[in-house]
Each structure stands twice: as structure tokens, then as C-alpha cells.
Amino acid sequence: MSEPSLTSSASFQALETHAIEAEDWQMRSLFAADPQRFERMSLEAAGLFLDYSKNRLDGRTLELLAALARERGVEQRRDAMFAGEKINNTEHRAVLHTALRAPREAKLVVDGQDVIADVHAVLDRIKAFTNAVRSGEWLGHTGKPITDVVNIGIGGSDLGPKMACLALRPFAHPRLAMHFVSNVDGHDIEAALERLDPETTLFIVASKTFTTAETMMNAQTARRWFVERAPESALPRHFVAVSTNTEAVKDFGIDPANMFPFWDWVGGRYSVWSAIGLPVALCVGFGYFSDFLAGAHAMDEHFRSAPIEQNMPVLLGLIGFWNRQFLGCPSVTIAPYHQDLARFPAYLQQLEMESNGKRVTRDGAPVDTPTCPAIWGEPGTNGQHAYFQMLHQGTDVTPIDFIAALSPSHELRHHHTALLANCFAQSEAFMKGKTPDEVRRDLQGLPLAEIERLVPHKTFPGNRPSNTILMEYLNPASLGALIALYEHKTFVQGVLWDVNSFDQWGVELGKVLAKKIEAELAGEPQPALHDSSTNGLIARARAAI
Ligand SMILES: O=P(O)(O)OC[C@H]1O[C@H](O)[C@H](O)[C@@H](O)[C@@H]1O
User: What does UniProt list as catalytic (predicted)?
Assistant: First the structure.
């Protein structure tokens, strides 16, 4: 039976009525009216603290959103995911990234297979391998320890490990430099290879399918580069694979003994916890990689057991839904006030936009509301000096997630004080704004006409929503919890919209057309099979190539 449409649900309609009342609400007044607002609208879970009080909503809004979550079946769908039901209904797959971070003693059997035992068998191999490389026991073909690790992968086989290795920089092994090659653009791999020594470099070819065109081309280029400089027999010391596709790995020439497997129930964008996290385990060591998994597991336990009203990922999802649906916000900015989280917005782009950038429901009916907003952002304070102008005074309202660690991993205390001051000041500024009268007061002393000329330019509308997520330190456990928080937020929103958050058919068309055009760019005769624009572009490129 198909799910009733979102807009026909009683709780959605109650929210619609409520949203009309809420249209004129000013957060300044909401704070003034309730001295307990911060206490009421903040919570802690899995080592993270979320302040959601600077949103344009009140207790009643939250009640209605919680009712919507219940009516849409967030709890049942969550339980179905954890239980290994095949909730990815267009690919007939279970969705079990949560099993990747479950402790060894957990139990989960899916299709007669002990999933937890499989996961821990691979983790044991990751532990042995990463210990060997890090200790210098695993040597390159001329007997030297590995100094450089190159992960060749794209999308989920790149963004997670790359983001996490950067985020955990203070925990990194001093001898191992991590490199990430993803783009089919030869400038990417060329820039990486020119600095590398084939005697001390380890390549990880990371691809769930082991058919992704970019990754296969980069892997072949790396292989060629290597065998031009080293005997072919040395390949097994320098090339390992991470994949679900053993046959394709073998065909590429990597011994399955050097392959770290995972499973079709791990989506690419949810795979950093699997063997796709191998670069992270190499970089920080297996102990810290285990802490990373444990941090995510702590968030899983919270998501699984906390009531909706005190459930951090559910609240984050519901508030995002409110902002998208009833405040009409077309995008969300992620503002990590931590330089080491520089790649976190890019990571979330894939997580949220590939998951929920859908226009039909699980049953294939058109959705009747907007779905995933655009996700973007840069670390603070850099963004403040670039696009925050638009966030403060532009015509669109863009909700912001501020993310900060209370303690830094460096000794430069005054830098950290300045960083946090900026983070908190921005959320205050977005909430409060600056009224025309406040501007007038500031400008006292100038001629009256000049004051009035400047007032509209210097006024800040304020009333712009934000969340603030704090952690004590950015470390493997808090990073794990943070990623899992957003994974589950994405899940919750997918349930509200009733989309399949675990497929990505939208990436296929471009891949197919690119294959065709690639052949046309190289071949004869001149093709004219496309529209005039595409034909014209191909012709220009053929003349240049
Ligand atoms: O790991 P792979 O099979 O190489 O896939 C890499 C990426 O490419 C695909 O096109 C999907 O859009 C991503 O979800 C996936 O993470």
C-alpha cells in the first residue's frame, strides 16, 4: 500500500496552520519571553552538544514536528534500518552502515549471514595490515618502509577518508603522508605522482563497484607509473584494493589477499566506517580508528533509543525540515569553526544531496513538497570574509550549522578564544540582527540626511536561524559521533519526504553520455548526433585535442 502523501497528513496540515501564525515571529522576542529557552532547546548526546534555540520556532512547533515524525513512521523506519530490512527498495538492499560500528558482541543476522562477525573479521585484517605498515614491518619492494599512501577513489570512496584524515591531523602517523586522487582530470593524479617515490608508496584502489570510470583510469595510470619504475612482481607490496567486487579486483591484477572487502548493504556515502576507511586507519592507527567507530556507535545508540523530543538527529532533521518547508530556505550552510573540518561541508554535500536530492517517493509518485536543500560551506572565520554578507543581508534566508570544538589541539589559546568569539558572535548576529533605530544610534553625530541614507544599508534583518554543535575536542570519537549525527539527520528527513535515501540514479545519465562523447572525442568521423550546443563543444575540443 502506498504511503499517504506528506501534505495530506494531519500533522503536516497542523504545521501549515501553525506556520502561518509563526510567520511574524521574531527570535529576539522568543528569547525575551522565555529565559529558559537555551536550557529547553539544547541537549547533549554521544559527546556532542546541540543548541537549537536560535531557530524560528517555539515549543508548540516542536510538538507538531514530533507528531509529524511519529505520523511519518520515523521510529519504525529507523528500527527497520537497524534490523537489516531491505529499506533501499530500488536496489533491494539492506542499509547497515550502523552494523559497521557495532561492537563485536552485538548480534545481527541478515539473510542467514552473521553480519557483525563478517564486519569484525575485516576489521581484524585492517588492524593487522595497518599495524604492519605503520610499524615499518610492511616494506616496499626495496626494503624501505612506506612513507606515502595514495587513495584512489571518488565520491564515497574518497570524500569520507579524505575528510577524516584531515580532521584527525593531530593523530596522524608522522612518517605517513596521505594523498587522495579522485578526479579523472589528469592534473589530479599528475600532481600526486610527481612527488612520489615508487619504492615507498602504497596505493589503495578504493571502489565499491570497481567499475567507476574515474577510479579505474586513475588506477591504471598509477599502475603504469609504478611498473615503469619497479618490477611488476613488486606490485603486491604497493597496491591494495578496497571493494565489494572480488572478480574485478582480480582482473585488475590485485591479489584478493590484498583486498579488503565490504558489502552491498554499505552505501558509498555511508562507507567511511567500512574498509573504505582504510586510509583513516593507516593515518591514525587502528586504536583511534576504533574510537572513531565507537563515537559513531554511541550516536547510533542515542538515535535508536532516545524519545523523539530528546533525539539529537531527529531534532536536527525536523528543524531542517521546518526551515526548508515553512521558511522556504533553499540551502543550508555548514560552518565548521575548525580548520581541520575544512572538508566536512563537501562530505555532507554527498551525504545529504545524494541521499535526499530526489523528486519521487519510494513508490515512484512525485513528491508534493520541496526536498533536500543545497548544502555548502567553508570553515569559519574564512566564510565571514567571503559570503556571510549574503547570509546577513541577502534576500534568501540560509540556515547555518555552526560546529566548534571547545578546546583546540594546539597551544595558541588566544587564537582559539578569537575563533570561538567569532562563532558565537555570528550566531548572535544572525538571530538578533540590527534594527534601524540601533543603526541610527550608532551613527549619531553624522548629518541627519546622511544617517537616513545609510540606515537601510546598515540594517540587519536578523531572525535568521542557526544551530550550534559543540564538542570538547575534535578527536576520533567526536568526529565519529558528528558524522553519524548527520547520517541520521539525513535519514529522518528522507523518511519525512518518503524518498529512498539510499539510491542515486541521478548520477547515471551523465556517466552514460560521457562514455559516448569520450569515444566521439577520440574517434572519426565527426559525429553530429547531439543538439547543436553539444555538437559545437565536441567539435571545438576535437580541433584542439
Ligand atoms: O565506490 P565506487 O563504486 O567507485 O563509487 C563511487 C561513487 O560513484 C557513484 O557514481 C556514486 O554517485 C557515489 O555514490 C559513489 O560513492
Answer: 354 (proton donor), 385, 511
pLDDT mean over 175-179: 98
Q: Atom 10 of ligand 1 has which residue's CA nearest to it?
A: 507
Pocket flag, ligand 1, residue 261 (CB < 6 Å): no
**Ligand 1 pocket mutation, candidates 159, 507, 512, criterion most atoms within 8 A of CB:** 507
Is 466 within a domain? Answer: no
pLDDT at 321 over 80: yes
Q: How many domains does the chain have?
A: 2
Closest CA to 295 of 44, 497, 127, 479: 479
Give the largest CA-CA distance in the chain: 83
For ligand 1, whether the C-beta of 504 sits within 6 Å is yes
Rounded-to-integer distance, Cα 163 and Cα 283, Å:
12
Cα of 506 to ligand 1 centre, how many Å?
A: 12
Domain final residue pick, 267, 290, 313 = 290
**306: exposed, middle or buried (C-beta count within 10 Å: 0-12, 13-18, 19+)?**
middle
Query: Is 182 close to ligand 1, i.e. is its CB under 6 Å away?
Result: no
Q: Looking at the predicted structure, is the pLDDT value of residue 337 above 70?
A: yes
pLDDT in tens, 70-111: 999 999 999 999 999 999 999 999 999 999 999 999 999 999
The Å distance, Cα 215 to ligand 1 centre, comes to 10
Whether the link from the prior residue into 525 is cis, omega within 30° of 0, is yes
d(CA 181, CA 172) in angstroms, rounded, equals 19
Instruction: Check if 501 has its Cβ closer than 6 Å to any atom of ligand 1.
Output: no
Q: How far is the CA of 363 from the centre of ligand 1 (A)?
A: 24
**What's the CA-to-centroid distance between 505 and ligand 1, angstroms?**
11
- Kindly state whether residue 307 falls inside one of the protein's structural domains: no
152 C-beta closer than 6 A to ligand 1? no
In a domain, 312, yes or no: no
3-state DSSP assignment of residue 454? helix
Q: Which residues are catalytic?
A: 354, 385, 511
Got the DSSP string for 18-85? HHHHHTT--HHHHHHH-TTHHHHTEEEETTEEEE--SSS--HHHHHHHHHHHHHTTHHHHHHHHHTT-
In a domain, 155, yes or no: yes
CATH number of the domain residue 244 falls in:
3.40.50.10490
Q: Give the residue numbers spanning the domain of 162.
A: 97-290
- Cα(503) to ligand 1 centroid in Å equals 11
Given 250, 266, 290, which residue is the final one in a domain? 290
What does the pLDDT look like over 196-251, one tens digit per residue? 999 999 999 999 999 999 999 999 999 999 999 999 999 999 999 999 999 999 99
Which amino acid residue places its CA nearest to atom 9 of ligand 1? 155
Nearest CA to ligand 1 atom 8: 155
Burial of 180 (0-12, 13-18, 19+ CB in 10 A): buried
Asked whether the predicted pLDDT for residue 3 surpasses 80, the reply is no
